[in-house]
Write a structure and sequence with these properties.
It is built from 29 helices and 22 strands. By secondary structure, the protein is α/β, with parallel strands linked by helices. The protein has four domains: 78 residues, no CATH class; 238 residues, P-loop containing nucleotide triphosphate hydrolases (Rossmann fold); 34 residues; 228 residues, Rossmann fold, CATH 3.40.50.300. Helix 15 crosses helix 17 and helix 23 crosses helix 29. The chain is extended.
């Protein structure tokens, strides 16, 4: 029965030929005559007889054969019935028509389904083959195509997705002043006289060795000095380490204040560490020489009372009315026994009758750490910021990360406070009587860093007014271009005179030996000082091993974070411009290679110094250690010796990574990999300052390699001049380290272990 063939689901590929066969069969049978049918029957009989094997021949069970025979007969009968049915249908076509139409429509349906399969198969083939998808037309999918073999169920082939176009936002998430900064090329130079500084100042700068203005000075000074380019608002500055930011803000501040007749606190500079207070003080004194301006400092190491007296002086004024009010108040306090108003009693204690105390600032410019500033705001009688004209926050990103004592909040509310009537000048009193909206305070805020943050949440704490951002950086595509590569992300420029190296130290277990090899063969190329006198006769040279260098990268995994904070005293900066004349030996000592080795914590610094000294006693004599745990006196001494060349090596924690300006530091070695990109930028920024050349080498272990190459060497956060690469160097320890040195190393480690276990003090300098 042909109809039954379509009554159940049969996969299209299989059914198509069957359907064709069935219709062929129909065609054949429609032209058959009774005679031909009989002939066919006879033929089949003959075949059956022929096919029937002789029982004798085969020797099989007659019962089984009989059963087989019956089965064949039954099948033949069934076939005959089928043909009869076909014949009947042919005789009565109308009666059978609905069934037949149904069959034909089903056949069409299967053909359609089949053609769909064929199409999708061709698309799959096309996607797999050329990757291109060609959609065939209906006509093309006709029966001319060979039948497609259907496979198991699998994922339906999908057309290849068009490549995603990298969307570049047409807007910036930053406010316009951050997204569209004032740009200046780091190679820009100008004379100080072109910056409209007076002749006396220009001459004075010349004497200090500042012949022309660096880019940041050329960019910032006009923006904050009187003149047509002055910006009436606050300024943020982003410029590389060692680019001269300190002079850039100090000079205009001193220039604007030097004509003041009365000493008032008008300039406030906030920096994160005591070392930087000392450095900035030096620059301020250089600039303010012979101007009569008084520079003061406030850092945590002094006795607060002494510092208070140095900042504010107390005087008497005859004013009977005011004296009566003050005395009445003091009496109330005495009666109530309250100690909160103790200062009021203090005020009256040494006053003559009819007199009141008045407080005056002893300084025009104060340079301080934020913690100490808060101390003075809260507890120094007569200390106020009502007259402030300049607020400078250097290393701003670091300071804004520190929230101790709520220093920004305390400072800002002090700046916003209204000046008490008693402190108003005659002019201010007159203005106060006028019914006018309050004029903006004449205060300029200058916020600076080599790693300036664009974090609005942090910057908003400074309540900037009409701010602009000044960026000093490399030009896009080298010199001549004007547009800088700026993104919404924070990106930092490195000094263009810096060369960077990276040294793989395997698993790190032999790091001291790698360091020793670097020091002996690449930094102190001639043998390191046997003693300082002998070394002073030699002319040192220093270059990292460019012969063994290549700039390939190497990657594995790892990452770290955050810098440690610091704070201690030291007269860090030895300003080359104002240093007294030196004897030749001291001069030579200064010209020797000088390097800072950075570790990630105090312990590593102390231990490294111990091992290095044990490996080679010559290095013990040349090395100083500066960590957070160094006392103020030790820190001062170490920095002084390092600055004047008595010590050539300074092993330091990140305490020394920010702002430290020791001239002629020739090398930086990151013995421990820095914990962040920002930390790396500041550490290596201790060399290659003020356009002098410098080299920095980072030691990385296998696990640190990936982070180093991804984030530091090739990361998008750091911009290098002319896309300069970090040069990879390698040292084959097996070749270079003698057996004697190896056993020394084992002994040094053993000595260190014993020292640590016995809780002996590991020598620190
Ligand atoms: N115009 C100039 N000519 C020559 N030397 C200069 C000039 N301006 C600054 N310098 C010198 O450049 C050095 C670095 O200056 P400074 O300490 O201000 O850098 P900085 O930008 O604040 O660096 P950092 O971000 O690391 O604190 C100092 O030794 C300073 O004396």
């Amino acid at each position: 029965m042909a109809g039954q063939l379509y009554a159940r689901y049969v996969p299209p590929v299989a059914t198509a030929p069957v359907a064709k066969l069935a219709s062929d069969d129909l065609a054949t049978q429609s032209s058959a005559t009774p005679t031909s049918i009989k002939k066919a029957k006879d033929k089949r009989k003959a075949n059956d007889t022929k096919a029937k094997p002789s029982l004798k021949d085969e020797g099989r069970d007659p019962m089984q054969d009989e059963h087989l025979h019956t089965k064949r007969k039954k099948r033949a009968r069934e076939a005959e019935d089928g043909k009869d049915a076909t014949r009947k249908r042919l005789k009565h076509p109308v009666a059978e028509a609905p069934n037949e139409q149904q069959d034909i429509s089903r056949s069409d349906k299967f053909k359609a389904v089949f053609s769909k399969f064929e199409r999708s198969s061709r698309i799959t083939e096309a996607v797999r083959g050329s990757g291109r998808v060609e959609i065939a037309t209906e006509a093309h999918t006709s029966a001319t195509e060979p039948p497609v073999e259907l496979l198991d169920l699998g994922p339906i082939p999908q057309p290849e997705q068009p490549p995603e176009v990298e969307a570049k936002p047409t807007f910036s998430a930053l406010p316009s002043w951050l997204a569209d900064p004032i740009k200046i090329s780091s190679s820009a130079r100008t004379t100080f006289s072109d910056l409209h500084l007076d002749d006396h100042t220009v001459k004075h700068l010349g004497k200090l060795g500042y012949d022309e203005a660096f880019a940041v000075q050329a960019g910032l000074i006009p923006l904050i000095s009187p003149g047509k380019d002055k910006h009436m608002g606050d300024i943020c500055v982003s410029a590389a380490t060692g680019s001269g930011k300190t002079l850039a803000y100090m000079l205009p501040m001193v220039e604007s204040l030097k004509h003041s007749l009365v000493t008032k606190l008008r300039g406030l500079v906030i920096v994160p560490t005591r070392e930087l207070v000392t450095q900035a003080q030096k620059v301020a004194e250089d600039c303010a020489a012979k101007t009569g301006l008084k520079i003061g400092t406030a850092v945590g190491n002094q006795v607060l009372h002494d510092e208070q007296r140095s900042l504010v002086r107390k005087r008497r004024r005859y004013d009977p009315d005011a004296a009566k009010i003050l005395n009445d108040k003091a009496l109330q306090v005495l009666k109530s026994g309250s100690l909160e108003e103790d200062e009021l009693l203090e005020d009256c204690r040494d006053m003559l009758p009819g007199h009141v105390p008045i407080y005056e600032s002893n300084v025009d410019i104060l340079i301080c750490t934020p913690g100490r500033l808060v101390d003075h705001i809260r507890s120094t009688r007569g200390f106020h910021l009502y007259d402030l004209k300049w607020l400078v926050i250097d290393e701003a990103d670091r300071l804004l990360d520190q929230s101790f004592q709520d220093w920004t909040e305390v400072l800002m509310s002090q700046l916003d406070a209204q000046k008490p009537e008693g402190l108003l000048s005659a002019y201010e009193r007159m203005l106060a009587t006028l019914d006018r909206p309050k004029a903006r305070k004449d205060l300029t805020k200058i916020i600076l860093s080599a790693t300036m943050t664009k974090d609005l949440a942090k910057l908003s704490a400074l309540r900037l007014s009409r701010p602009r951002l000044l960026v000093v950086g490399e030009e896009k595509g080298g010199k001549g271009g004007t547009e800088q590569i700026l993104t919404d992300n924070e990106t930092f420029d490195l000094p263009k005179t810096l060369t960077e190296y990276a040294l793989s130290v395997g698993d790190g277990s032999k790091k001291p030996l790698y360091l020793l090899h670097l020091l002996s063969n690449n930094v102190f190329v001639d043998s390191p000082a046997e003693d300082q006198a002998e070394a002073s006769q030699k002319k040192p040279t220093s270059k990292l091993p460019k012969d063994s260098a290549d700039s390939s990268s190497d990657e594995d995994s790892s990452s770290h974070e955050a810098e440690d904070s610091s704070g201690s005293d030291s007269d860090a900066k030895i300003n080359q411009h104002t240093a007294p004349p030196e004897d030749p030996i001291a001069q030579e000592a200064r010209s020797r290679p000088r390097l800072i080795i950075f570790t990630n914590n105090n312990e590593n610094a102390s231990r490294l110094a111990h091992v290095l000294g044990a490996l080679d006693s010559k290095f013990a004599a040349m090395t100083g250690v500066l960590t957070k745990s160094s006392t103020t006196t030790v820190g001062k001494k170490v920095l002084r010796e390092f600055s004047n060349g008595k010590k050539s090596i300074l092993i330091a924690s990140d305490r020394a990574s920010r702002g430290l300006d020791v001239p002629n530091v020739t090398h930086i070695i990151n013995y421990d990999i820095p914990r962040s990109v920002v930390s790396y930028v500041h550490r290596i920024g201790r060399t290659a300052r003020a356009e002098r050349s410098g080299e920095a080498c980072t030691l990385f272990t296998r696990t640190e390699a990936r982070w180093f190459w991804h984030e530091i060497a090739k990361g998008s956060q750091i911009r290098r001049v002319d896309k300069r690469k970090v040069i990879r160097i390698s040292i084959n320890l097996a070749e270079h380290v003698s057996d004697e040195m190896k056993s020394k190393y084992v002994a040094a480690l053993e000595g260190l272990r014993e020292a640590v276990e016995d809780r002996k003090d590991v020598p620190t300098s």
